[in-house]
Design a protein that fits this description.
Blueprint lengths: L14 H4 L8 H17 L1 H19 L5 H23 L11 H25 L5 H21 L4 H21 L3 H51 L3 E6 L10 H7 L3 H4 L4 H6 L2 H4 L4 H11 L4 E10 L2 E13 L5 E10 L1 H15 L9 H18 L3 E8 L2 H8 L1 H18 L5 E6 L2 E6 L5 H15 L3 E3 L2 E3 L3 E8 L6 H17 L5 E3 L3 H17 L7 E10 L5 E12 L3 E3 L1 H10 L3 H16 L7 E5 L2 H4 L4 H12 L6 E6 L10 H10 L3 E7 L6 H6 L4 E4 L1 H8 L3 H17 L2 E4 L5 H10 L3 E2 L10 H16 L1
Parallel strand pairs: 10-11, 13-15, 15-16, 16-17, 17-18, 18-19, 19-20
Antiparallel strand pairs: 1-4, 2-3, 3-4, 5-7, 5-10, 6-7, 8-9, 12-13, 12-20, 13-14
Helix pairs in contact: 2-4, 2-8, 3-4, 3-6, 4-5, 5-7, 6-7, 6-8, 7-8, 16-17, 22-24, 24-25, 27-28
């Protein structure tokens, strides 16, 4: 039996159990055993009564010459009364073979045995001293017969039997010892011990037999219950075959499940029954082939699943069977059970699909992508081929989520998935890894150039505008490609290689495809080490600020400085801001580093003359933190710098995070009196709406426009003129960056720019040189 239905058959009986001295585990089963003991005593009750009557008559016959008649009559009356009462109590018991009896029912029989023992003890103790040795011998024989009869008839009731044997035995043994007949006393002691042992042995045998009957009954009941369940359950049925694999003794349930008549199905080959209409064309399912192999090999089986066709409908069955043999041990066929698992299989398929397909897009998810890639790599290794993995990341999608919400973002993702699915060729799988990341598994790559061309087509297709809720979205995509087994010998390594290639695509500005190159791993390791060093750069004092002068375009007078962060690493030397600033943003280190720059720049600017301002660049990630306002206020308060002398420079990318509260943070910073400058205007996703919604004091013209305009490019010239005109109309100043020659200076002067910075005036200066320049210009101005 299993754990759900533990065996309740009691363990072997001990003396205390036979004597009913204590209750034990399996109370109900021991109740049945005690009922059996009482029932066995009932069947022999009349025999014990007859033995008592015969013994009493024999005793009276031997004692009549020696004992007074009234004494014998009184003893005989008491003896027969007790024997009659005991027989009546045994014979009238309500307990039956399969009933239950309590401990008290068995214990009460001990009083019956004691009563009989005491009345018969009168003979050796009271009557024998008055007789001759010959009469004593006769009486001893009668006592021995009585004890033997009790051991036989009362053995199932051990307590009663022992009570009778021990009381009468001690009386006889005591009498013989009193007469100094020690040999006879010892012999009678052995006789008593043997009778007690026989009694206990018979009682144990009865208990063991009854225990086995109970266990067998439980097993029979369990089997019967299972058979009834199989017969009554609509989806479970029994089946049986002869040694020729033909169906015999088909149950009605099995016939109905097969869609056949119960009479017709008998004698049909089992395989033909299960094959149905496919029997004639020979198109058998794999499960049927396996079943045929098991039947041919005369092997038992279980959990064998196969499809069957019943009345034109495909059903799924699960079969189990074992070979059966006749009484001579000769193979006679199979006997088994079957279940219809069509619904369970459909549920399992549904669960499997939910586990392997993305709920939003319906595309395969990360689990199925990994499984498919693993199989593709195994096939490539087996046949010496190549497979590929493309990792796709959507460009500018985060801005859609942040500005318009996840509901619109989800609909855009659904459109992306539709376009991807339409582009896939036979055998190629595309799926969603999560968020705005997708993947493509190409199982057989013959031409790497064609693969890269396909990746570029995916970028072009995904970059087309999306129309959602009468709004147009432009997002684009970047792709990293890795080819196995060249770029990775297992799925995990290949995915990692594609991820590194994608990182390179994103680092190049997005909208491009890059294939994996071995040096990317080295670059990734370098980036990891650089990040570790960056985390300790502030603590080690490796960071410092350079100050680049900003001058008035007309007079050339110093109007302020731009604070530029520099990192001189002990391990990597001078690290370019172009490399470590994006890394700081990615590693979420920009907030503490930016706060340090702000505090240090404010402390330094507080030492300068009151007309010299300090400009500090602010990352979009810093503005996503509502505590940034507190950081600015704290830097101003601790340094004593007046707010109007601090100018924060932000790029247009700040406004791509409007959903994260960046604009609200800027408004609170402006309320402190701090000035705001828009950096690199025209290089990103420019919109006049930014200027109208935010109180900028300065627009900075990127160095690329200045350089292109100096080469006579009409578009750059037009852009600079438009920006200056726009700034004038809004009451803003304009700063031209990257001015490196006198010609460029005159040019931006002619365009009307108000401020200029660049190498023509000064490179970024260490703090000591910046202080000297401030003092020199201040003295010159004062003079």
């Amino acid at each position: 039996m299993n754990d759900d239905h533990p065996s309740v058959t009691p363990p072997p009986a001990g003396i205390s159990d036979l004597l009913a001295l204590r209750e034990r585990a399996g109370t109900a089963e021991w109740g049945r055993i005690r009922a059996t003991q009482l029932f066995a005593g009932r069947r022999l009750a009349l025999f014990m009564l007859a033995a008592n009557i015969a013994g009493a008559i024999g005793t009276l016959w031997l004692l009549r010459p020696w004992i007074a008649t009234w004494q014998l009559s009184l003893w005989a009356a008491i003896t027969l009364t007790i024997a009659g009462v005991v027989a009546h109590r045994r014979h009238s018991t309500s307990h039956r073979q399969n009933g239950y009896a309590s401990l008290a029912d068995v214990r009460n029989t001990g009083l019956e045995g004691l009563a009989l023992g005491f009345i018969w003890s009168v003979v050796p103790i009271v009557f024998c001293p008055q007789t001759t040795p010959g009469v004593d011998a006769g009486l001893g024989i009668i006592m021995a017969i009585m004890m033997t009869a009790a051991a036989f008839t009362m053995a199932p009731l051990v307590l009663a039997t022992l009570g009778f044997l021990l009381v009468l035995g001690f009386a006889l043994i005591g009498r013989l010892a009193f007469e100094h007949n020690f040999a006879a006393s010892a012999g009678f002691s052995v006789f008593c011990i043997l009778l007690v042992a026989i009694c206990i042995s018979r009682a144990r045998g009865l208990v063991a037999l009854r225990t086995a009957e109970i266990a067998l009954g439980e097993r029979d009941e369990t089997v019967s219950l299972l058979l009834r369940e199989f017969e009554e359950a609509g989806a479970d049925w029994l089946w049986e075959t002869d040694k020729g694999r033909r169906v015999v003794k088909a149950s009605p349930r099995f016939a109905v499940a097969c869609g056949l008549d119960p009479v017709t199905i008998n004698g049909m080959p089992l395989l033909q029954v299960l094959a149905g209409p496919n029997w004639d064309n020979g198109q058998f399912a794999n499960g049927l082939h396996e079943l045929a192999a098991r039947l041919n090999g005369r092997e038992g089986f279980r959990d064998l699943r196969l499809p069957v066709y019943v009345r034109g409908e495909e059903r799924w069955w699960e079969l189990a069977a074992a070979p059966r043999h006749d009484e001579r041990g000769v193979f006679a066929g199979f006997r088994g059970v079957g279940s219809d698992i069509t619904e369970q299989r459909a549920s399992a398929d549904k669960i499997n699909r939910m586990a392997r397909y993305d709920a939003l897009t319906g595309l395969p998810n990360r689990l199925l992508i990994n499984e498919t890639l693993g199989r593709a790599m195994a096939e490539a290794e087996k046949w010496g081929g190549r497979c590929a993995f493309m990792m796709i990341d959507l460009d500018r999608f985060k801005a859609v989520n942040d500005t318009l919400g996840h509901q619109i973002g989800d609909r855009v993702l659904s459109r992306v998935s539709e376009r991807l699915a339409q582009m896939m060729e036979s055998g190629t799988l595309c799926g969603r890894l999560g968020g705005d990341e997708f993947a493509v598994v190409v199982p057989d790559v013959k031409d790497e150039d064609a693969l890269l061309h396909t990746a570029q087509r995916i970028i072009d297709t995904l970059s087309r505008p999306y129309e959602v809720d009468q709004q147009t979205f432009y997002i684009g995509a970047s792709i990293g490609v890795a080819i196995g087994p060249r770029d990775g010998e297992d799925a995990e390594t290949l995915i990692r290689s594609a991820d590194l290639a994608l990182y390179r695509s994103k680092d190049a500005g997005g909208g491009v495809v890059h294939a994996y190159e071995p040096q990317l791993h080295a670059q990734a390791e370098e980036r990891r080490l650089l990040e570790m060093a960056l985390r300790q750069a502030l603590e080690k004092g490796e960071m410092h600020i350079a100050y680049q002068p900003v001058v008035d375009a007309e007079t050339g007078n110093l109007s302020g400085f731009e604070a530029l962060l520099r990192w001189q690493s002990k391990e990597f030397g001078a690290v370019s801001p172009v490399k470590f600033i994006p890394l700081a943003e990615e590693a979420r280190l920009i907030a503490p580093i930016g706060a340090w720059v702000l505090r240090t720049a404010c402390l330094e600017a507080a030492r300068w003359p009151g007309h010299v301002r300090i400009a500090v660049n602010v990352s979009p990630d810093q503005l996503q933190n509502p505590h940034f306002v507190t950081t600015v206020a704290s830097a101003l308060a601790n340094s004593g710098l007046s707010p109007e002398r601090l100018e924060l420079e932000v790029t247009e990318s700040v406004f791509m995070h409007e959903g994260l509260g960046a604009t609200k943070v800027l408004e609170r910073v402006l309320d402190l009196g701090v000035r705001l400058s828009l950096d690199d205007f025209g290089t990103g996703y420019s919109s006049l709406g930014y200027l109208s919604r935010t109180r900028f004091s300065t627009i900075k013209i990127d160095r690329s426009f200045v350089q292109n305009a100096s080469r006579g490019e009409r578009e750059a010239v037009a852009i600079i003129r438009a920006v200056v005109a726009l700034a004038d109309s809004l009451g803003m100043a304009t700063t031209a960056e990257g001015v490196e020659t006198e010609a460029e200076h005159r040019m931006v002067q002619g365009f009307g720019c108000t401020k200029v910075q660049g190498y023509y005036f000064s490179r970024p200066l260490p703090v000591a040189e910046a202080r000297i320049l401030v003092q020199k210009r201040y003295n010159s101005h004062a003079a």
